[in-house]
Amino acid sequence: MKTILVWATAFVLVLTTGALALPTLYVDGALVNPMAGPSEDLTITYGSDQQVWTLLWEMTPWRDVNYLGVYDGLGVGNGQTEVFSGSDSPFGSVTTNFAAGQELGLYLLNDINDNGIFDGNDSYLFSERALTKNSGANEHQWFKMYDVSAYGESDYVFNTHTEDFSYHGNFDYLLYVDDDHTSANWDHNDMIVGISSPIPEPATMLLLGMGLTGLGIVRRRK
Q: Where are the beta strands (DSSP E) in the chain?
């Protein structure tokens, strides 16, 4: 299994009282707009065949029973792949292998009795909002995602009306999840995830370099 290096070198929680009413993300001081609005559906299409998901933050009473994943059964919610389980700790990483260009939705299972299925008082939150089950706010977009791939290694500041989060990293996407399914509180800071492409291992880079060198020699001979 490849060793994946993901830069998430610092993560600082700063309590504030003057944050904006709705969450906002600044990358190196520039305001970035989310990929979907608060009353719009969200799907993601990744540009590479591997994706590294890093759990940056999770501070919620349901952190031990929240299960985050993606699904390819758009409009239905099936074909699910779990990414993080309730036992996962911050800064842990998971690698998935979805084909580049494949369209995916996001889900969060709030498994109250922690039996691995949706039943009882559980809630099922989907980025395609009509699929959400057992929630008092089905019209709410629980997943706020940002495309930050153009920035490279950067400083990120996520402002909410409850807390601000400042950290440093190099991600393609940042995902912020609101899990208050009984009455959405719009802070989207219950779970924070960074998504990036894997960094090739040194041996892979060496082989790539040797291949490029060989191509250069062939070109010169021609």
A: 10-15, 24-27, 30-32, 44-45, 51-58, 66-73, 78-84, 93-96, 103-110, 123-126, 143-147, 154-159, 163-169, 173-177, 191-196
Residue 20, CA distances (Å) to 60, 154, 175, 207 in order: 21, 22, 18, 49
What are the backbone dihedrals phi and psi of residue 69, each rounded to the nearest 5 degrees, phi first?
A: -160, -175
pTM of the model: 0.82
CA 68 to chain centre: 9
Which residues are CB-neighbours of 164 under 8 A, at least 6 positions away? 13, 14, 15, 16, 19, 157, 158
List, for residues 63-102, the tens digit of each pLDDT value. 899 999 999 999 999 999 999 998 887 889 999 999 999 9
Q: Which residues does 206 contact at the CB level (< 8 Å), separation at least 6?
A: none
- Cα-based torsion angle of the residue sequence 53, 57, 63, 66 in order, rounded to the nearest 10 degrees: -30
| % residues pLDDT > 90 (the chain) | 56
Q: For 129-186, what is each residue's pLDDT tens digit?
A: 999 998 877 778 999 999 999 999 999 999 998 889 998 999 999 999 998 776 666 7
Please give the full DSSP string across 69-116, using - where no structure is assigned.
EEEEETTTTEEEEEEE-TT--TT-EEEE-PPTT-EEEEEEEE-TT-SS
